[in-house]
Amino acid sequence: MSVLFPTYNRFNVAVAEAEGTTVIDENGKSYLDFGAGIGVCNLGHRHPSVQKAIEEQLQKYWHVSNLYHIPIQEDVGALLTNNSMGDCVFYCNSGAEANEAAIKLARKATGKTKIITCRQSFHGRTFATMSATGQEKIQEGFGPLLETFQYVPYNDIEAAKEAIDDSTAAVMLEVIQGEGGVIVGEESFLKQLEAICQEKDILLIIDEIQTGIGRTGKSFAYKHFCISPDIITVAKGLGNGIPVGGMIAKAKYRDVFGPGSHGTTFGGNPIAMASAKAVLQTVFQDEFLEDVTSKGNYLIKQLNEKLGNNPFVKDIRGKGLMIGIECKSDVSEIISNLIDKGLLVLNAGPRVIRLLPPLIVTKEEIDQAIQLMIEELAKKA
Ligand code: PLP
């Protein structure tokens, strides 16, 4: 029996090694990885320039604490702020911590308490981020939750308007809901929300933990919708597998987090920073992002052509290389069968197959994955 808490229903794959888009198990079986560690290994496993950067940092120093200047934090911060609407960065170790920081900052900046989030959202598992998450199954058994979160239906501007009042500090949402089923936000909803937030001095926080770092073909997914949030939060793809998160905010919020107001021992760890710097130098290049867009368009077009007529498939949607295939009923058996056939894919809720391949995936690998999915989904048609 395992000594681990059974917090995950694990598939029968014991990983021995991984490189690029390939994962190899202890029996030597190879898998094409279309999950990338839940959207983490955006550059594939052990990308050479990331590995080199980590190895070089290992030879220098591993940890000294944020009591001292760690110059590489500024390098990563410059890459993040030069490629976003933000001006200042707070580093942490995970997505939940990044959102936690954003929630704290919004409350301190405004002196208000209510934070509006969306139904079906996912923002993390800490107490505040679990309370922010609009899914009862995540919260079950842990109540009472923090009371100052109010959930509104996604893409429903009237509901958002109704929820906003004088006690509202922030609106926090994903521009594409990941765990909630790969649901793409509507531009008109997001733009109207931005306008209301600006008018009423409410912070607009975009959770880019799954959508950021090139995943959708832009450095950050909010850019698809022509909005400029006050804060974005990142994690997952930032370190390509080395844990790191960040909150990126506009300049006017810099002094809200003065010395001693917020912190974490490991945030901005030099090894994580070395990894993040190499990731961002690679991903935040026009040609790289254009290639993600082109492969994403190819993937979604092929899926539509080849699965669009399958009566078991209800919808195919997404942006860049973040794609959901919504099916008529539960997809867990399909996912297990695909894994048996050597293709790692994810779910997003019970009925959506979620594809988050490494952004370095080739068209040949996309074709290979599509073929396996066609065969598996044909059994359900
Ligand atoms: N926010 C979003 C949109 C996520 O997809 C996730 C993780 O799946 C999180 C927050 C939480 O991140 P972490 O698991 O690193 O705490």
In short:
This protein is of the alpha/beta class and 381 residues long. The chain has 12 helices and 17 strands. Helix 10 (286-307) packs parallel to helix 12.
Structure report:
- With 381 residues, this protein is α/β, with parallel strands linked by helices.
- It has 2 domains: 48-283, Type I PLP-dependent aspartate aminotransferase-like (Major domain) (Aspartate Aminotransferase, domain 2), CATH 3.40.640.10; 286-354 and 371-381, Aspartate Aminotransferase, domain 1 (Alpha-Beta Complex).
- The protein is 35% helix and 19% strand.
- It contains 12 helices and 17 strands.
- It has helices at 36-39, 48-58, 71-82, 95-110, 127-132, 136-139, 157-163, 187-200, 270-283, 286-307, 332-340, 363-378; strands at residues 15-19, 22-25, 30-33, 88-92, 114-118, 149-152, 168-173, 176-177, 183-184, 203-207, 231-234, 245-249, 313-319, 322-327, 343-344, 346-347, 352-355.
- The strands form 4 sheets. A 7-stranded mixed β-sheet has the order 4-12-11-10-7-5-6, sandwiched between helices. A 4-stranded mixed β-sheet has the order 1-2-3-15.
- β2 and β3 form a beta hairpin.
- The longest helix has 22 residues, at 286-307.
- The protein is globular.
- The model has no long low-confidence stretch (mean pLDDT 98).
- The site of pyridoxal-5'-phosphate has 15 residues, from α4.
